[in-house]
C-alpha cells in the first residue's frame, strides 16, 4: 500500500524517520512529505496557505495512480482531510495522529503567535504539559533545533469542504493527549468541534497514551499501530 505521511506544524518529512521502519518491514511504500514553506529554515513562506499544502499532497496522490492511505499528524490531519475531500475515490483510509477532522470553515489554529509571514515554534509554555508528555528536556531541545517556522496563513486559512463522499472514507483516530473515551463522549454529547467526526460513517479509535508528538515520544509503538491499521 502507498502510505503518505503528512507532518504537523514545524516539521518536515524527517519527523517520521523513527516511525517508518515498521511500515517498511511490512512492505508498504512510504511517501513522507515536506510541505511547501518547510523545506528549510530560510525557505520563503510569504503567500503560502492551506490550499498550497493540500494541493501538494493531492498532486502526489494523482501521481501515484493507486488508492492510498493518508496519515496526518496534528495540522497535517487537516491537510489529509482536505485531500480526502478532493479525491474521495482515491483514498483507502485517513489516519489522524493526535488530530481529528474539522468542520467546513474552521481554521487549524488562528491563535498561534505570528511573526511576519511565519509562525516560529512558540515557547513550550504555550502548549502545556499534557501536550508535551513523553518529551524530556533533551527531546524538547532536539525538537526545537529541528523545528522550521510554519507559513502563517496555513494556521488561519479556513478549511473548505465540498464533497460529502469524504464522509464514507474509512477513518482511524489515534488518540494521544486525550483518551478515545473522551472523544467518543464529545461526539455523543454533540460538541460542535467534533461535528465532522460525528458525521463520518466508518471510524475507529486507537489509544496511544502520550503527548502530542508520538513520532518523538513513542515512535516504535506508533509505527506498529499504523501497520495494524493498514492490515484492517
TrEMBL record:
Residues 3-221 form the AB hydrolase-1 domain. It comes from the Bacteria. One of its GO terms (molecular function) is hydrolase activity. SUPFAM superfamilies: alpha/beta-Hydrolases. Pfam families: Abhydrolase_6. The keyword Hydrolase applies. It comes from Agromyces luteolus. This is Alpha/beta fold hydrolase. Keywords: Hydrolase. InterPro entries: AB_hydrolase_1 (IPR000073), AB_hydrolase_fold (IPR029058), Sec-Metab_Biosynth_Hydrolase (IPR052897).
Amino acid at each position: 500500500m502507498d502510505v503518505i505521511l503528512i507532518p504537523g506544524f514545524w516539521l518536515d518529512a524527517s519527523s517520521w524517520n523513527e516511525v517508518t521502519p515498521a511500515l517498511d518491514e511490512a512492505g508498504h511504500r512510504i511517501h513522507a512529505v515536506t510541505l511547501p514553506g518547510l523545506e528549510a529554515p530560510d525557505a520563503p513562506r510569504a503567500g503560502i496557505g492551506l490550499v498550497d499544502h493540500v494541493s501538494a499532497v493531492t498532486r502526489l496522490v494523482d501521481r501515484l495512480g493507486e488508492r492510498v492511505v493518508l496519515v496526518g499528524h496534528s495540522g497535517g490531519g487537516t491537510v489529509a482531510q482536505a485531500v480526502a475531500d478532493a479525491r474521495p475515490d482515491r483514498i483507502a483510509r485517513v489516519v489522524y495522529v493526535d488530530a481529528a477532522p474539522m468542520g467546513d470553515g474552521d481554521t487549524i489554529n488562528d491563535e498561534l503567535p505570528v511573526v511576519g509571514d511565519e509562525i516560529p515554534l512558540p515557547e513550550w509554555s504555550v502548549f502545556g504539559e499534557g501536550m508535551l508528555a513523553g518529551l524530556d528536556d533533551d527531546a524538547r531541545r532536539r525538537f526545537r533545533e529541528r523545528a522550521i517556522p510554519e507559513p502563517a496563513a496555513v494556521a488561519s486559512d479556513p478549511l473548505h469542504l465540498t464533497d460529502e463522499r469524504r464522509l464514507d472514507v474509512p477513518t482511524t483516530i489515534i488518540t494521544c493527549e486525550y483518551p478515545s473515551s473522551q472523544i467518543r463522549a464529545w461526539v455523543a454529547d454533540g460538541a460542535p468541534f467534533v461535528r465532522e467526526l460525528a458525521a463520518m460513517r466508518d471510524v475507529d479509535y486507537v489509544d496511544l497514551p502520550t503527548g502530542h508528538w508520538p513520532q518523538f515520544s513513542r515512535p516504535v509503538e506508533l509505527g506498529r499501530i499504523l501497520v495494524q491499521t493498514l492490515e484492517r
